[in-house]
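During data preparation, a discrete fold description was generated, as reproduced here:
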Amino acid sequence: MPFSAQQAATPPPGSCDLLDVPLTAGLLALARMDLRGRPTGAVWTLGGRLLLPLPPGAGEELPGLLHWLGWGHLHGVLRNTPAGTAAGALRLRPGGTPSPEPVVRLLDTCADACARLQLLLSPRSGLSRAPSRRLP
């Protein structure tokens, strides 16, 4: 079934929280989930961010879950956005809300993608640029 322009303009339902992920990291996480055959549910984008639906109330637990998973330093990079504040979001993928993926696994996948990109883009990592001198 083709995905219509009308479906793309459908905003997230107001009854769910949204996991708000930087767009590049979110797309990396989606690609990894697709590669592993894991369901994503509906996905939206808004202002350089990817929005994934969470079960009601899960957004309140986000800081604690990030800390518990060992990704506490990403609080603020990964954040909760109430669906009612996501007016103008464009749906990238159809699917159910909330995501059928378990919240902890979804959060861990997105956090790992954020951390990988931070490492690659960090000037201190040496991974984001060619060597400045020839190595012996």
